[in-house]
Amino acid sequence: SCKSLGGNRVQVYNDTIRQSSLELLRLEQDLRKAIDNNEIQVHFQPKLDLNTGKITAAEALARWHHADEGFISPGIFIPLAERTGLIETLGSNVLEQSCRQAASWYHQGIQIQVAVNIAAQQLDSGSLVKQVDELLNKYELPAKMLELELTESTLMEDAEAAIVEMHSLRNRGVTLAIDDFGTGYSSLSYLQRFPLDILKIDRSFLMTDQGNRSQGTLTRAIIALGHGLNMRVVAEGVEDPQQLTELKQLGCDFAQGFVISRPVPAEEFTQLLDKQY
Ligand code: C2E
Ligand code: MG
Ligand code: MG
Ligand code: MG
C-alpha cells in the first residue's frame, strides 16, 4: 500500500543518511591516521609570469591517496578537516613540506616562490606567525620565497584580527594573496585595508570563449581593481591557449591552470623547469 511505501521510503532515506555519516566518520578516522602517518602529500602547480613566459612560482596543493578509496579530492577532505579540527595539523604539515621543498629549490639556485593555502582556523590560531618563523629558520628559506593564500571568506571571518596577523607576516617579507577572489563575500572597503600583494581571480570569471563578452568585462574589471590597489593579479584555472593570450592582452600578471600544467609532484615540477630553460 501507499502507507508501507511511504514507510519504506523513510527507511531508505534514513539508511542513506546513516550510511553517509558512517562513511564520513570512517573517512575522518582514516584522515586522522593519514595525517599522523605523513600520508598527505603536496603537489605543485606552476604559475607562469605572463611578461616573461617563465614559471616563477608554484601553488602547493594537498593530496591524499587513500589505500582503499584511491585519490580523494581536497574538495572533500579539506572541508572535513576544517569541520573536525584536523585542519591545523594537516595545514602545518603542508606548510612544512612546502617550505622544505621551496628551500630545496632555493639552495639549488632555483627561485620558485611557493604559495600555501591557509585555512581560517590556522590564521586565527595565533601560532601561524611563530610557525612560519620556525620554518624559515629551520630550512634557511628567505621569507620572500614563501607566499600564503587566504580566501576572501577566511579574511572576512574576523577581518580585524586577520589584518593584525597579516601585518606580522608581511613585515617578515612573506607574500600574501587573496584566493578565489570574487566568489566570497567581499567588502571592497576591507580589500583596501588588507595588506595584500596578490589577487587571484577565481576561474569562474575567466572567459570561456571569445564570444563571452560579459566574462571578459569582469576579468578586465578585476584586473584593474587589483592593479589599482597595487596588487599583482593571477588568473587561476586557465585551460586553453586562447585564454592565455587574452589574459596577457588584458595585462594580467600571472596565469595558473591545466594549460600550463596540472599540479605535479616536486620532481616532475623540477623537470618542467628543466624543459623551459
Ligand atoms: P584553490 O586554492 O583555489 O586551488 C586551485 C584549485 O584549482 C586546485 O584544486 C587545482 O588543482 C585546480 N585547478 C588548477 N588549474 C585548473 C584548471 O585549469 N582547471 C580546473 N578545472 N581546475 C584547476 P584542488 O587541488 O582540487 O584543490 C581544491 C581546493 O582545496 C583549493 O582551491 C583549496 O581551497 C583547497 N586546498 C587544497 N590544498 C589545501 C591545503 O593544503 N590547505 C588548505 N587550507 N586548502 C587546500
Ligand atoms: Mg589557492
Ligand atoms: Mg583559488
Ligand atoms: Mg578554489
UniProtKB/TrEMBL annotation:
<protein>
    <recommendedName>
        <fullName>PAS domain S-box-containing protein/diguanylate cyclase (GGDEF) domain-containing protein</fullName>
    </recommendedName>
</protein>
<feature type="domain" description="EAL">
    <location>
        <begin position="24"/>
        <end position="277"/>
    </location>
</feature>
